[in-house]
């Protein structure tokens, strides 16, 4: 846009809407911005965001219409607004290129947010109001759907937290009363009591897996990976599992190297679910779980093997949730699906084979991390 006369090709009458969409026009040429604002005000479904547009960070808008010079000037502010928004916050770029392809060429030294991460739609000049209406309608519809989805997600997350809290409380009551029966049962009754305890613990562990699974879904973009002490995580989880499953035998083959891997605070969940799975699905009278950790030049490989029934080869992709059906597959399990999801986020790999003990052998390969290269943590959740 270089002049008021070139801003619009017509003043078409557009359809009326029932909602008020806040439009933030930011054009380098004051006359063009005024013409655009006047058109917006003539539409029942739109309103112009009042105030000083120079302070974009304080503007409350649904759609921003901006030209190329202004985009260069306000890229960082708009990018911050989009990142902070809980829903899709569209930016419509008015471009002087007649083909609709922007001539924006970001400075290579320009830091995030990059220009092309900010722009959601292009509109060539001279502006055709019919085309402007169409693109605004599309962007508004997507934003409305995004807001509705965000609200639905918040409601589901709240329901998830409340449900998990109530389930844990009830299972703790069941476990507490069952523990009180110790010394009052024998033979078959004691076996039933132990089964109740085992099932209660399984439900509690499942609520933890659900929480951690939701945590992975809530994480936006790539996870923030750190150097995590694998030795600390594995030994801590082994201590906890031995206390939880007193009838099972946990054996470490060799030593666990004191190395660091690229992961985050959910790495403990990987080993908790592997160890839980090895015991809870074990039909042996004396469950045995063997842990082996080997360090290589670039990776650290951990294996968890058991003497249970094993996992048939035809089901191995399914239990990790890798089929088209995902968790809806009958063989899928939330615990191993979470393991595979987290390890994949860590740029690692998961493989299931047959164990020499007769059951399943799950191998986890993780990338080594330099403690001096990234921030380190020894915390295990």
Secondary-structure element pattern, one letter each:
EHEEHEHEHHEHEEHEEHHEEE
Instruction: Estimate the helix proportion, in percent.
Output: 40-55%
Report the CATH superfamily of the largest domain: Histidine kinase-like ATPase, C-terminal domain
Weakly predicted, low-confidence segments:
1-18, 100-113
Round the Cα radius of gyration to an integer and report it. 29 Å
- CATH architecture title of the largest domain: 2-Layer Sandwich
Distance between the termini: 56 Å
**Quick one: CATH class of the largest domain?**
Alpha Beta
Describe the structure.
The chain is an alpha/beta fold and 381 residues long. It folds into 2 domains: 21-149, 3-Layer(aba) Sandwich (Rossmann fold), CATH 3.40.50; 221-377, Heat Shock Protein 90 (2-Layer Sandwich), CATH 3.30.565.10. It has helices at 30-42, 68-84, 115-118, 129-180, 188-218, 230-244, 267-280, 316-319, 334-345; strands at residues 21-26, 46-48, 63-67, 91-95, 121-124, 226-229, 249-253, 260-263, 288-295, 299-306, 349-354, 360-367, 376-377. The strands form 3 sheets. Strands 2-1-3-4-5 form a 5-stranded parallel β-sheet, with helices on both faces. The longest helix has 52 residues, at 129-180.
């Amino acid at each position: 846009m270089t002049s008021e006369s070139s801003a619009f090709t017509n003043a078409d009458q557009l359809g009326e809407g029932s909602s008020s969409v806040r439009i933030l026009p930011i054009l380098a040429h004051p006359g063009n911005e005024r013409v655009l604002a006047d058109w917006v005000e003539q539409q029942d479904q739109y309103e112009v965001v009042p105030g000083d547009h120079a302070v974009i960070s304080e503007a409350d808008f649904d759609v921003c219409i901006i030209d190329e010079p202004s985009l260069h000037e306000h890229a960082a502010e708009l990018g911050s607004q989009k990142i902070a928004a809980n829903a899709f916050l569209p930016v419509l770029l008015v471009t002087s290129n007649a083909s609709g392809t922007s001539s924006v060429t970001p400075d290579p030294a320009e830091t995030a947010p990059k220009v092309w991460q900010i722009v959601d739609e292009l509109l060539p000049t001279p502006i055709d109001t019919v085309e402007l209406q169409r693109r605004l309608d599309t962007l508004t519809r997507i934003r409305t759907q995004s807001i509705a989805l965000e609200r639905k997600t918040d409601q589901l997350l709240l329901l998830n937290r409340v449900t998990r809290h109530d389930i844990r409380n009830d299972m703790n009551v069941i476990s507490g009363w069952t523990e009180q029966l110790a010394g009052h049962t024998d033979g078959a009754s004691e076996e039933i009591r132990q089964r109740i305890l085992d099932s209660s613990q399984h439900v509690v562990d499942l609520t933890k897996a659900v929480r951690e699974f939701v945590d992975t879904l809530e994480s936006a973009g790539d996870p923030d990976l750190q150097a995590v002490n694998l030795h600390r995580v594995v030994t801590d989880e082994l201590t906890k599992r031995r206390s939880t499953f007193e009838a099972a035998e946990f054996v470490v083959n060799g030593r666990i190297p004191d190395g660091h891997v690229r992961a985050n605070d959910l790495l403990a969940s990987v080993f908790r679910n592997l160890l839980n799975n090895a015991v809870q699905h074990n039909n042996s009278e004396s469950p045995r779980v063997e842990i082996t950790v080997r360090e290589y030049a670039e990776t650290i490989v951990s294996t968890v093997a058991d003497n249970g029934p094993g996992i048939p080869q035809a089901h191995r992709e399914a239990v990790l949730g890798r089929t088209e059906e995902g968790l809806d597959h009958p063989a899928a399990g939330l615990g191993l699906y979470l393991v595979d999801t987290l390890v994949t986020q860590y740029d690692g790999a998961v493989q299931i084979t047959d164990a020499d003990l007769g059951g399943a052998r799950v191998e986890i390969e993780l990338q080594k991390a330099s403690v001096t290269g990234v921030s380190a943590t020894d915390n295990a959740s």
